[in-house]
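Hello again,

I reread your note about wanting to compare the complex against the isolated chains. To keep things tidy I'm splitting this into two emails, and this first one only covers the full assembly. Below are the input lines as submitted, including protein chains and any nucleic acid or small-molecule components. They are followed by the predicted structure of everything together. The single-chain runs will come separately.
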Amino acid sequence: MSAALLSRWLLLGEWRAHRWQCLVAILAIMLGVALGFSVHLINTAAVSEFSAATKSLSGVSDLTVQATQATFDESLYPQLMQTDGVAAASPVLEIMAGVPAKADGRDDPALKILGLDVFRAATITPDLLGIPAEDQPFDTLSEDAIFLSPAAMEWLAVRPGDALQLSLGTKTVSLRVAGGLARAHAGQRLAVMDVGAAQWHFDHVGLLSRIELKLRPGVQHAAFKEALARELGAAYLLMEGRDQDARIRNMSRAYRVNLNILAMVALLTGAFLIFSGQVLSIIRRRAQFALLRVLGMTRRQILQQILLEGGLLGVLGSLLGLLLGYAMAAGALRFYGADLGAGFFTSLAPSLPLNPLAALLFFAMGVGVTILGSLAPAWEAAHTHPGPALKSGSEFVALRALRMPWLAGLCLLLAGVLTQLPPVFELPVFGYLAVVLLLVGGIAALPYLASLSFSTLLRGVDAQGRGVLRTLILARLSNASSLAAIALGGVLASFSLMVAMAIMVASFRVSVDNWLAHVLPADIYVRTMIHQDLRGLTPAEQQMIAALGGIERIDFMRSKSLLLDSARPAVTLIARPIDTRDPANTLPMTSDALPPAQMAATAIPIWVSEAMVDLYAFETGKKVTLPLTDPPQTFLVAGIWRDYGRQFGAIQMQLSDYRALTGDQHVSDAALWLASGMTAEQLITALDDLPFGTSLALSQSNQIRQRSLELFDRSFAITYLLELIAIGVGLLGVAASFSAQTLTRIKEFGMLRHIGLSRRQIRRMLGWEGGLLAGFGITLGFVLGVAISLILIFIVNPQSFHWTMQLYMPWTWLSLMALAMLGAAAMTAFAAGRRAVAGNVTQAVKEDW
Amino acid sequence: MRCFWILLLWLFFQGGMVAAPPEFSPVAPGRVLQFPQDFGAHPEFRIEWWYVTGWLETEEGHPLGFQVTFFRTATYADTDNPSRFSPRQLIVAHVALSDPATGQLVHDQKIRREGFDLVYARTGDTDIRLDDWVFVREAGGSYRAQIDAHNLRLQLTLAPTQPLMLQGDQGYSRRGPETGQASYYYSAPHLSVIGTIHRNGKTANVTGTAWLDHEWSHELIGPGAVGWDWVGANLDDGSAWVVFQIRDRTGGVFWAYAALRDASGQMTIYAPEEVHFYPERFWRSARTQATYPVATRIRTGEIEWQLVPLMDDQELDARASIGEVYWEGAVTIVREGKPVGRGYLEMTGYLQPISR
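Full-complex prediction:
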C-alpha cells in the first residue's frame, strides 16, 4: 500500500468522522481571511480611487502652490509666472457650492467647482477642460457657462443647455450647463468654469485656491521647491503628488489599520479553534497513531499527516475566505460606500480591483495560521512513544505538555508593559500587541485557572457531602482541566473580544452623546447650505437674523479650514464667543486648561482639540503661530478640549480676536437661544421668511444630536458586524469542541452507565459540565474583555484617533450576551450528550482495550 | 486682411447673453491715422492684428520664409465683471518658418487672455506681449520680435527703410461693397531684418526683408464671402505691392483691392474690377485633401504678375487649435518672366468656407 493512499484514507476517514469539527475550523479560517481581505480590498480601492481623483485635478503639474488658508491673493499668480524655472502656471479657484435642488437629500448638497483659465489649464490639466457644444466653442470663457463631469451631470439630473442653480452663502447663482469635461475621473462629481466668472459669481474676486506649476525641463524639483518655499514663507505650502498621496493615506489610515487589526484578531480566533480541534483530534486518535507507528510509520510521516490535515483545512478555509472577502467588499462598497460609512471619501464610486498579490498574502496568512495551530499538537503526537500511548488514559500526558502557566504569566506581564509604550508612526501598535498578548496569556492560563477554581468548588461540595452527580461533574472539571480549557479557548477569545468591543463602542457612544449635549447648548442652529462655506452670512444678514424677535441670545461662529502641514488633512479653525474666564462653559474642556490668571493680557488665547496636541504638539501654555494673517500671528494655547467631530484637529478662538486680526466680518453659523414664550417652530418660520431664508439650513439641536448619533452608528456598522461574527465563531467553536470531547468520552459514559447512572443523568451531567465550563469561560472572558476594552479606550483610541473618552459599562447588553453564550454552551453540551449516550452500553465499554 | 483666427473668435463671440455687453467703435472714413498712437493697440475696436512676413537668408545663403503674427480680439465679456481674469481681450500669436530644405512649415501658436502684465497689447505704441513672446516697437522705430516657441526660437530686429504705406483711402481700407465693411490698415514694407533663428539645437544668423501689416476694425468679412487670397511683396526696385481678393460663395469676387507704391512713394490704387486672379497650378495637401492654387497669375490694371511659391507645402493645419486650415507662404514675384521681388501669399477658405 502506498504512503499516499494511506494518507488519503486517514485524512478522509478523519474528516468523515468529524465533519462538524472540520467545518468549524474551515469557517473560522474563512471568516478571518474574508474579513482581512475585504477590509484590505475596500480600503485599497477607496484610497487609490481618491488618490487618482485628486491627481486628475492636478494633471501633469510638477508642483502645487497652496495657501494654509483656503484662498490667497491672486497677485501670487503673475509672481510665480515670472519666477525662473517655471514653464507654465495654471491658476485655480476651487469653490464648494451648494446645490439647492439637493438640499433635502441624504447626500451632502455640495458641488466642487474649479475655476480655470482654459488657456493656462490646457497644458497642465487638459483633462479638466470643458467641452463646449460645436457651435459654441468659446463657451469655456462664457460667464454663465459651467461644465460638468458625467457623474455630476447624472447626480444633478441635468443636460447641456439646462440651467443650474447653485449657491454660496446666501447668494444664488444661475448658470447654464454648457457641456462635459474632456476626461473626468469616473464617478467623480466635478464642475469647471472660467476662473474670472467663478471669482465674480461666487464673491471671490482677487482670490485663488491654488496654482499648478509646470517646471522647465532640467530644473531640479527639490531645489526649486526649497527656494520657492523660502521665498513664499509660512503662509504657503508647496505640494508634489507625493504629498497629496501621503495626505490621503493619512486621512483614513487609523480607521483602516484598526479594521485590519480586528480582522487579524478574527484570524487569531480561528487559529485557536484549529488548535483546539487538532488537540482533540490527536487525543482521540492517540491509539491510532501509536498503532501506525508500531506498524512502521515514521515520526516524520505522522507529523506530515497531521500538518497536512490541518493545512488542507486551512487551504479550503482560506480559498473560501478570499471569495467571501471579495463578495463582502463588493457588497460593502455598494451599500455603505468606499469608507464603510466613516465619511472620509464621499462623492466617489470606486471599482474593486483584483490584486493577486494581496490575495496571495491573505491566503498565505490563513494557511500559515492553520499550520501554526496544528504544529504543537502534531509535534506532540509524533514524539509520543507508541507503547504508553496505546494504553488508556495516556492523553492526559499529552495535555500536560500544553500546560504552560509560565507562558501565560509572561504574556500577561508583557502585555502590561506594552500598554505603557507610545504609538509607532501614530499607530497604537503596542496597544494592539498588548491585546493579542492578553488573549494568548488568558488562554494559556485557562487550564491552570480552571483546575484551581473547580477544585476549590469540589472541596466545597465534598465538605457538604451531597450529590453524586455534582461531585462527578466537579471532579471531572477540576482534574481534566486541560481538556476543558481547550473547549474554553474559543469561548474565551470570542467572548472577551465581544465584551471589549461592546464596552468600547458603548463608552464611545455615551461620550459622544454627552459631548453633543455640551457642544450644542443653543436651541436652533443656522448655517448656509455648505459646511465651512467660504462666503457665509454677511454682516447685514447677521443683523437681520439678530433683529428677529424671540431670540434671547445669539452666538455667531466663523469656521474655516487651515492647512498647517502639506502631508496632513486640514485642521478646522472655529472663531466664536468663548467664555475666557471659564472656557468649559462654551467648550467640552478636558482638565487641561490654563487658569486665566496665568495668561498675559496681550496674549491671544486659542483652545485646541486633543488631536492638535498629538499631531502638532500644541500643548497648554505653549506659544504657537498660526498663518491667519501675513505675517503669521502668535497665539497662546489656553486649553485642550475634547472633539469627536474632527479627527484631524480643530482650533477655537474668540470671534472678536479673529475679526480684529483678519477683518473678516462674515460668519458661517449662528446659534440661537429662544426667549421664553417662543417656540422653535415659530423662530424657524421667522428665519425661513427672511429674504435669504431659503438658502439657510436650520436645525434644532436635538435633530443635530439625533443625526450625529445616526452617523455614529453608521460608522460603527462594520464593528457591529464584526462583533456578530465573533459571537458566531465562538459559539460554533463551543459546539464543535463539546461534541468532539463528548465523543472521546464514550468509554467513560459506558462505565458510568454500568455503575448505575441513567442516560438522563449522564445527559444532565454533561449539560451541567458544559454550563459550568462556559460560565467559567464567560467570567474569565469578561475579565479579559474589560482589560482589553481598557486598552482600546485609553490607548488605542487616543493614539489612533486622538481623542479620549469616558468608560461606560453597558451592563444590560453584556449580561444578555453572557446569558446567550451560556445558554448556547449548555444546549450544545446537552445535545452532544444525547449522541454520546445513544449507543450500546456494552459496545461502549468494549472500546476500552 | 489676413486673419483668420480673429474671424473665428469674432464669430464665436457673436451675441453673448450678457447683462452689460461692451460697446465697440465702428470703422468710418475720414479718420486720420495718428502716429505713434496708431502703432499701439485699439482696444475699443473688436479686432486687430500685427502681421509680419518676410524672406530671410542664412549666412550660407539658404532662403527661409517666416511669419510672426499677433492678434488681439475684444470679446463680449460682461463689463460688470470686476475680476482681473475676465477675458475682455484675447491675444493670439502665431509663428511659422518655411524652410525649403525640409519642405514643411515649422509653426507654433498661443492664445491667452490679457491680464496681470503677463499678456497685453498696449496702447500708444506697438508693445505686445504674450508670456515670453514679444513684439515691440523700440525707441529708434525698429521692431523687435522675440518668440520662444516649443520648436523654434526667433530673435529678430526689423528696421524700417521706407515710410508707412497707408492702404485704401489714407488708411481706410474697404473690404466690401457696403459702408462699414472696412478696416483701418497700414503697412510697413521693406523692413530690413537682422537676427537669429534657433531650432533643432542650432542657431543661425539671418538677414532679410519683411513686410508688416497693422489692421484694426469692427467687422471682418461681409456676409456671403467664403475666403480670400492676399499678397504683400517687397519688389527689388524698392516698390511695395499689395493685392487681395475676397471670394464669394459662387466662386465670384466679393471685393478686391491692389496698390503699388514705387520707390519714390508714388502710390497707384486699383479699383476692385481692375484686379484679377488666374490660378495656374494647383497643389493638393495629403494631410487635409484641400487643393490650393499655389501658382497664380494676377493682373492689376495693365500689369501681369506671376507668383512662384518657395515650396508647395506651406499649408498650416491649425484644426487642433482653431479648427481651420490655410496656406500661408513665401512666394517669388515674377513679371515678364523675370523675378522682380519676394513676398507672402495667404489663401483661406479652400478646405471649407470660412464663415460657417
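For quick reference: The longest strand of chain A covers residues 86-98.

B.
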